[in-house]
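Duplicate of #3305? Posting structure anyway:
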């Protein structure tokens, strides 16, 4: 086959004219061009058309007139006159025959035996035979292709290679319409590596030249199949040459960049192999597609370069000229985007595809990278890409002149960075990247530099750390020494409105790295002001680098850079600066209108304070060993910060604050547990839920118009007029928590007036509701105001004003309130809420105090010997703290239990402390249920009962939180009158079953009595197997004590405990025999002691024996009122006689209970 260059192809103009049947354009074609289209035109003129319009008839006449002057038309007409039906049948038969016999068979159905060669036979044959000769040769080639399994092979053909008969053979092919659709699909993966691939590429490339509109579709097929990469590049080069725009990014750059930087790894590997294989060939000629591509890219690069410069560096004295006149010409603004695209493409070619640039390419790339773009966002991006490319491919700088050129360019970057940032309006400038890379070089974090380069370039390329050695030397010794870095970093302006929406490398990244490497403290550069200004300039969504910055800053404040220099630390933010952040929030009156700083800044400063205090406590031992004691923030500062309000604001911004909200909650739970009470969170959910939204819809202007002064005036008129204050506070319930803050002081200061008689319960409940709403935003300040307001008013005695610190040291101050609060359930609910909070706060306060003062006793190992006991074991300070907390909690419980007891006045009115349990029992056992229910209702509907319920709820929470409190309180004991109340009202009292055996084993008689009485109530409330075993133990202990106690102690022990045996029998009937035996045994012991004095004891013992043997016979006697009331033999004052009568009454109660049960 002759070379393609000697052939003539259909031009795009001729193809388009033929495709559109443009007769005018066809008539303008030259004879050679028209000759290529004759088969199509002749077929068009002779075949019956589907279009029967008049216009087509006229066009057909013109086509016939055009063909009339061409001699070759006659031979083509003859080819179209054959019997195509018979020809098709013979072709099918021959195809089957060749498939059966193999391609080497010489038999043919289409053509009989040839007498001469194929060429002579073709010359001497008529048109039908010529068609058969060409078709037979094509079928032979096609059969050979099918046998080759897709592999390329070369086959000579006398007919197709003869230039004499090429035109006639081409006419026959056009008539036969032989088209190959699988050229791409069956093509080679790397077309330039084989002759077949190059032939396919040439054929498809010429076809696309004939019809350029299909070139991009063919290129898409090439990429989709990952075959013939040279064809894809060649078609792109042909398309690029036809582009008119020179300033925009060319199609070649876009196409190759898409292949290498796209998400399809298969395509990326396929094209990378094409680049690598193309470089491995010994010589690249201009016919190589890879060479053409590289040449075209180089031409585009050179086309946008500024004025051609030499790499010769002018001395400083020579550049003393006008600012706009320099040997370093700037990059044109319209070329910046294209230059950035070219840089990324060359990075991909070298980093991903392994392209090795020539000296010319390296020289021109360096010229482009060190050019100076205008101060635009695109210019900032170009400089960043150029800088990262220099780091990634340091081999581009090979001569001292080029290295000096790079140093001058880097110096220019440092000098112009501020101007670029101010002019371009881009916050993330290349100055921060320079600073960050310098810090990484100083700390030898080469992997971080590689990650930074790959991130900026937007591609993952392999960079050897060793290739950065020269750049490291230039940065650390010539451009950015560590001292220069730190001094420059402080002068970098903070990022205005810093948020996660601002991407790229910012000053905060640089400061973070410098803080981590302790450069500021090493060179004594203060960074506190910069960090404070940056925290103030923040907004949502939260930038992810802010929290790590605060953490590393706190570490640099507390931990010195080296042990040899313990003073080398940063300065903390001052208290006044912190207060300035919260200006407008602290006052409360204009909480929303006068906020100078954003909620993000306030939350970040809050996070800083809490983290600082936590880190200070955690590093106490380390700081003590280094003889350092950093200053802690004062409690007065913490009291002025609205922590709960800020946390509530953060809760509504969780999505925008990232991990800040959860971090604040963790710090709050550790340092301020009283602000993390579960009841508060539940209450807050109710306040901020759907009901709150509905109430807001009812909000009227009247509710907004009520001022704190009007509320104060309404409270002043409470003794006379309750309507006005009721109306105002009802309107206030429609306000949000933050809107209620201005009314907090008035509400709390007038609480004492609500204790006067005659105040409606609705007012008290509404005040309680408003207090709970305020508790969600300002709990600490609200608690202090409330405690001071509820102090007892004593004439001529000035009330003490307690502070937050006083209440954390001694939480029991809360219970030293006006006694009237103890019988006012709405205000008692508030008091209990504060007590619970301050008990939790006291624990955190003492733990922090213990850690703070730990360094004051380094030589004593935190142990203290008991005073006056030289041999006593040493007690740790931690144990002393726990003992103090336990004593504090138990004291609070004892005071609350004392409040549950009725006063003398209430006792006079018939209020019984165990009414709840007794009323329930009466409903179950009495024969007149209606009467019992009425009595129960009378006793339940009172303030004492409601206060008892509130106290029982708090005690239940305390017992569940720390069961040791319950054990301590019951080992201390409390009035037995409260046992029915505590057992029935505190659900967690069942835990007492665990330690009652230990309590019974105590040597004190009072504790044993209390344990048995407590157990009797627990057995009724919790009739469990465990209760049965403990009750059996108690009966056995009572039997044992009977044998060892003296007469006086026996009386003191058994008189209060014998009634408990009735409860044991009621809960557990199997104990009946043991208890009856115990009672008779007690009676016998008492009778033996008084046998010489009293003769009436023996009949009592006799009756007890008879009752035990025949209890049914004594049932009528037991119902006698004298037995029930115990009025018999009461004249004797002898303890044993009284004990015997008590035994008899106990037995009678047990019998009555058993008989009624049967």
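Output from current build:
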């Amino acid at each position: 086959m002759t070379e393609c260059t000697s052939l003539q192809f259909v031009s795009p103009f001729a193809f388009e004219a033929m495709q559109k049947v443009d007769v005018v354009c066809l008539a303008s074609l030259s004879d050679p061009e028209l000759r290529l289209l004759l088969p199509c035109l002749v077929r068009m003129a002779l075949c019956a058309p589907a279009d029967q319009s008049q216009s087509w008839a006229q066009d057909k006449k013109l086509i016939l007139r055009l063909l009339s002057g061409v001699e070759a038309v006659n031979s083509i007409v003859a080819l179209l006159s054959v019997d195509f039906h018979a020809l098709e049948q013979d072709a099918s038969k021959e195809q089957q025959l060749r498939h059966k016999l193999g391609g080497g068979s010489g038999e043919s159905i289409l053509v009989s035996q040839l007498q001469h060669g194929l060429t002579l036979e073709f010359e001497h044959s008529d048109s039908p035979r010529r068609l058969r000769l060409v078709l037979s040769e094509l079928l032979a080639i096609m059969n050979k292709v099918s046998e080759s399994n897709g592999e390329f092979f070369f086959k000579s053909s006398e007919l197709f290679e003869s230039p004499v008969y090429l035109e006639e053979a081409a006419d026959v092919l056009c008539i036969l319409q032989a088209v190959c659709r699988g050229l791409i699909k069956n093509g080679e993966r790397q077309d330039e590596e084989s002759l077949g691939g190059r032939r396919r590429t040439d054929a498809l490339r010429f076809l696309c030249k004939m019809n350029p509109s299909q070139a991009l579709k063919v290129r898409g097929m090439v990429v989709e199949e990952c075959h013939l990469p040279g064809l894809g590049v060649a078609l792109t080069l042909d398309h690029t040459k036809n582009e008119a725009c020179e300033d925009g990014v060319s199609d070649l750059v876009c196409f190759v960049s898409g292949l290498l930087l796209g998400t399809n790894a298969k395509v990326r590997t396929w094209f990378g192999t094409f680049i690598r294989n193309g470089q491995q060939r010994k010589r690249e000629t201009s016919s190589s597609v890879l060479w053409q591509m590289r040449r075209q890219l180089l031409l585009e690069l050179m086309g946008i370069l500024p004025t051609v410069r030499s790499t010769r560096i002018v001395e400083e004295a020579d550049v003393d000229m006008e600012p706009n006149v320099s040997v370093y010409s700037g990059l044109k603004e319209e070329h910046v985007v294209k230059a950035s695209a070219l840089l990324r493409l060359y990075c991909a070619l070298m980093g991903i595809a392994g392209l090795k640039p020539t000296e010319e390419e390296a020289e021109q790339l360096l010229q482009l990278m060190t050019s100076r773009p205008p101060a635009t966002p695109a210019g900032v991006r170009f400089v960043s890409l150029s800088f990262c490319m220099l780091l990634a491919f340091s081999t581009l700088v090979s001569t001292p002149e080029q290295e000096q050129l790079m140093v001058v360019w880097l110096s220019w970057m440092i000098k112009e960075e501020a101007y670029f940032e101010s002019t371009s309006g881009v916050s993330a400038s290349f100055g921060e990247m320079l600073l960050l890379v310098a810090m990484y070089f100083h700390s030898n974090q080469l992997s971080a530099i590689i990650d930074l380069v790959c991130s900026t370039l937007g591609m993952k390329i392999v960079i050897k750390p060793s290739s950065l050695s020269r750049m490291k030397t230039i940065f650390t010794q010539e451009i950015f020494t560590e001292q220069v870095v730190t001094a420059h970093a402080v002068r970098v302006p903070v990022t205005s409105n810093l948020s996660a929406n601002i991407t790229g490398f910012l000053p905060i990244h640089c400061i973070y790295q410098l803080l981590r490497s302790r450069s500021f403290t090493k060179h004594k550069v203060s960074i506190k002001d910069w960090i404070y200004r940056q925290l103030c300039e923040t907004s949502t969504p939260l930038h992810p680098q802010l929290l790590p910055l605060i953490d590393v800053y706190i570490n640099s404040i507390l931990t010195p850079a080296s042990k040899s220099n313990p003073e080398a630390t940063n300065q903390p933010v001052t208290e006044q600066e912190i207060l300035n952040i919260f200006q407008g929030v602290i006052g409360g009156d204009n909480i929303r209108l006068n906020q100078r700083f954003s909620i993000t800044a306030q939350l970040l400063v809050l996070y800083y304070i809490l983290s600082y205090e936590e880190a200070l406590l955690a590093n106490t031992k380390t700081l003590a060993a280094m003889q350092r004691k950093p200053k802690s923030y004062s409690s007065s500062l913490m009291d002025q910060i609205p922590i709960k309000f800020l946390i509530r604001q953060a809760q509504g911004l969780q999505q925008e604050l990232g991990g800040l909200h959860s971090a604040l909650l963790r710090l709050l739970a550790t340092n301020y547990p009283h602000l993390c009470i579960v009841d508060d969170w539940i209450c807050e959910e109710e306040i901020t839920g759907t009901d709150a939204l509905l109430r807001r819809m009812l909000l009227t202007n009247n509710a907004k118009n009520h001022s704190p002064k009007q509320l104060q005036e309404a409270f002043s008129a409470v003794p006379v007029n309750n309507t006005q204050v009721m109306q105002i506070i009802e309107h206030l319930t429609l306000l949000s928590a933050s809107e209620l803050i201005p009314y907090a002081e008035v509400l709390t200061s007038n609480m004492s007036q609500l204790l006067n008689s005659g105040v409606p319960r609705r007012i008290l409940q509404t005040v309680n509701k408003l207090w709970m709403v305020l508790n969600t935003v300002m709990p600490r300040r609200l608690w202090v105001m409330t405690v001071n307001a509820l102090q007892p008013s004593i004439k001529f005695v000035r009330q003490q004003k307690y502070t937050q610190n006083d209440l954390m040291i001694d939480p029991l101050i809360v219970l030293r309130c006006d006694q009237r609060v103890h019988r006012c359930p709405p205000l008692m609910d508030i008091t209990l809420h504060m007590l619970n909070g301050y008990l939790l706060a006291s624990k955190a306060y003492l733990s922090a105090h213990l850690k703070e003062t730990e360094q004051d006793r380094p030589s004593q190992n935190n142990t203290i010997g008991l005073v006056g006991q030289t041999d006593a074991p040493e007690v740790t300070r931690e144990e002393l703290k726990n003992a103090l907390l336990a004593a504090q909690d138990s004291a609070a419980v004892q005071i609350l239990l004392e409040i549950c007891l009725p006063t003398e006045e209430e006792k006079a009115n018939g209020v019984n402390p165990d009414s709840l349990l007794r009323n329930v029992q009466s409903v179950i056992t009495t024969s007149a249920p209606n009467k019992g229910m009425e009595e129960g209702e009378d006793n339940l509907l009172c303030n004492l009962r409601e206060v008892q319920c509130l106290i029982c709820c708090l005690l239940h929470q305390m017992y569940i939180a720390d069961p040791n409190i319950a054990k301590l309180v019951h080992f201390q004991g409390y009035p037995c009158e409260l046992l029915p109340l505590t057992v029935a009202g505190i659900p967690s009292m069942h835990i007492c079953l665990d330690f009652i055996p230990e309590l019974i084993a105590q040597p004190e008689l009072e504790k044993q009595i209390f344990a048995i009485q407590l157990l009797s109530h627990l057995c009724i409330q919790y009739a469990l197997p465990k209760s049965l075993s403990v009750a059996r133990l108690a009966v056995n202990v009572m039997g044992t004590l009977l044998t060892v106690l003296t007469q006086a102690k026996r009386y003191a022990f058994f008189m209060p405990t014998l009634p408990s045996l009735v409860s044991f029998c009621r809960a557990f009937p199997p104990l009946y025999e043991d208890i009856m035996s115990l009672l008779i045994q007690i009676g016998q012991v008492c009778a033996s002691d008084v046998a010489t004095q009293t003769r009436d004891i023996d009949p009592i013992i006799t009756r007890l024996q008879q009752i035990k043997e025949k209890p049914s016979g004594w049932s009528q006697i037991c119902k006698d009122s004298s037995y029930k009331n115990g009025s018999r033999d009461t004249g004797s004052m002898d303890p044993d006689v009284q004990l015997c009568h008590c035994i008899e009454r106990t037995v009678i109660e047990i019998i009555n209970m058993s008989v009624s049960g049967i």
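Confirmed duplicate; merging threads. The chain has a mean pLDDT of 77. Residues 825-852 form the longest helix (28 residues).
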